[in-house]
Amino acid sequence: MSSSETATTAESTTTGHDGAVRLEDVVHRYGRGGETVTAVGPVDLTVPAGEFLVLVGASGCGKSTLLRLIAGFERPTHGAVRVTGAQPRPGGAAGVVFQTPRLFPWRTVGGNVDLALRYAGVDHARWPEHRARLLARVGLEGTEKRRTWEISGGQQQRVAIARALAAEHPLLLLDEPFAALDALTRERLQEDVRRVATQTGRTTVFVTHSAEEAVFLGSRIVVLTKGPGTVALDLPIDLPRGDVDAEELRASREFAALRARVAHAVKTAAAA
Ligand SMILES: Nc1ncnc2c1ncn2[C@@H]1O[C@H](COP(=O)(O)OP(=O)(O)OP(=O)(O)O)[C@@H](O)[C@H]1O
Q1: Quick one: DSSP state of residue 124?
Q2: Distance from the alpha carbon of residue 162 to the mean position of ligand 1, in angstroms
Q3: Do you know which Pfam families this protein is assigned to (predicted)?
């Protein structure tokens, strides 16, 4: 964890609310002196409230760095990041889901969700109701008394998503959350996340390598160039959202065309 990741000072400099997330001329470099790596930039990007933005690109192009900047775990070397008008700080406006679930093994499934409710400042008397609703939202009804090692990897990742939803942050950030899961579980969780995002209307930024995953989930896809990542393609996705048959959607001609387009853009951007 970097020192900026542990920063806790809240900052409330507001610069307007022209987007849930706003990146202005953002460049981020790691390291100091002679040994620096420019990971991203320059990037200008506005994510309107309610959008489901997917960041796609080859390994090392800076996807996670962009997400960490939006989460407030890093401060940009140059430019500005604003989340609902303010400089982001860890635990501020965003719920974050990582590649691995990072659950507390000494707590039950319900206990892990309760911890998030406590951090969110939810009144203790209302925990059971919130816990049940959150677990139902990710398809984990009836599992609250189970230990985290008694549930599958996919179920653990569902708990992590429920936990990230607990605080009702306006923003949900997911960094390759399904990378370690088998194909079938991954598809099911994609369907869950798509449904949850549609139901809650929450602004979402999702990082993946997969063009297929990007097209299924996103209402907009941004493909990054190879590092330092800049925007190579910014593509609105006009597939039906709401109550759709996931299998039908994945099998549609429009889906195949978009997937091919994004896959091609990722390959071209990685080779440039
Ligand atoms: N803490 C760090 N210190 C130094 N360099 C870093 C650090 N984190 C990332 N980098 C470098 O920054 C660049 C972008 O990394 P980042 O993890 O953001 O890419 P990514 O697109 O998410 O990669 P992947 O898809 O492999 O996870 C890479 O060159 C990486 O080596």
Answers
A1: G
A2: 27
A3: ABC_tran
Do 191 and 79 share a domain, yes or no? Answer: yes
Among 153, 168, 183, identify where a domain stops.
Answer: 168
Verify whether ligand 1 is closer than 6 Å to residue 41 (CB atom).
Answer: no
Here the ipTM equals 0.98
Degrees to nearest 5, angle at CA 19 with 17 and 25: 105
Q: How far is the CA of 64 from the centre of ligand 1 (A)?
A: 7
- 1 is a domain residue: no
Query: Domain containing 141: what range?
Result: 103-168
Together in a domain, 83 and 175: yes
Do residues 51 and 200 touch, judged by C-beta distance below 8 A?
no
Domain with residue 260: its CATH number is 3.40.50.300
Q: Is residue 135 part of a domain?
A: yes
54 in Cβ contact with 220 (< 8 Å): yes
Judge if 182 and 229 occupy the same domain. yes
The count of residues in the chain is 272
Q: What digits encode the pLDDT tens for the residues 125-179?
A: 999 999 998 898 888 888 999 999 999 888 998 899 889 888 888 899 999 988 8
Rounded distance from Cα 161 to ligand 1 centre (Å): 23
pTM of the model: 0.87
Amino acid type, 162:
A
Residue 38, ligand 1, Cβ within 6 A: no
